[in-house]
Amino acid sequence: MALIELNKRQEEILRIVKVDGPITGEQIAEQLSLTRATLRPDLAILTMAGLVDARPRVGYYYSGKSTKTVLVEQMSKVLVGDVDSLPIVVHEKNSAYDAVVTMFTEDVGTLFVVSEGGILEGCISRKDLLKVTMGGMDVRNIPVDMVMTRMPNIVMTTQDEPVLQAAQKLILHQVDALPVVKPTADGNQWEVVGRFTKTNITKFLVDLVQA
Ligand code: ADP
Question: Which of 51, 90, 112, 202 could bond 94 through an S-S bridge, CB–CB 3.0 to 4.6 Å?
Fold first, then answer.
């Protein structure tokens, strides 16, 4: 299966560019008996997907790259800081009940647990909270720091990490979200500045093919 799904017209344009490139938009339009304006969005997609390159006064030519190469390039070039979300956090002394409420109101599946100053102490997922309820404990009296996965076992990312690398961490460690962190001034702790999730990757992929 192609990684970037091209429609029939885009396939046709790509074929023409492969055979006759460099070729102008006018000439492609002529070959397909279409207007230049009709072709413009398709040419834009092929160019943005990296399959076709364009040079002023020369025209369009085939980049020679496969869709896989292009995808790997994009995922390595785009950084976590370009696609991440705002972090949703709870304080370590909040209760498991507070965490459940925050998950509902913020509509997220993972919360980052912080101490004063937004310092990362742990992560809490849906399953962690389900476990507490199954244990029959009173969620209002259990602090989240008794339920969370704690530092130093948290898998993290930074704003300048390529999306591909961060995505590989999600797969390798079988988690849904990574806290995006930056070191504190003394360099001993991590401050939470963002949230990188499977949803960010899905959005990134959709944006890539719809650009
Ligand atoms: P769930 O299974 O609840 O849908 P996850 O698969 O993300 O969500 O979480 C599985 C376990 O991994 C939970 O115990 C959670 O505390 C822990 N966890 C979640 N995110 C991270 C992370 N970034 N680093 C380390 N552990 C994490």
Answer: 90
Q: Are 123 and 111 within 8 A, CB to CB?
A: yes
What's the CA gap between 197 and 83, in Å, rounded?
9
Ligand 1 centre from 156 Cα, in Å?
12
Residue owning the nearest CA to atom 25 of ligand 1: 154
Q: Please compute Rg for the chain using Cα positions.
A: 24
Per-residue pLDDT of the chain (211 residues; tens, 9 = 90+): 345 678 899 999 999 999 998 999 999 999 999 999 999 999 988 988 888 999 888 899 998 887 777 778 888 889 999 999 999 999 999 999 999 999 999 999 999 999 999 999 999 999 999 999 888 888 999 999 999 999 999 999 999 999 999 999 999 999 999 999 999 999 999 999 999 999 999 999 888 776 6
155 C-alpha to ligand 1 centroid (Å): 9
Cβ density class 101-111: b for 16+ within 10 Å, e for less: ebbeeeebbbb
Protein residue closest via CA to atom 6 of ligand 1: 175
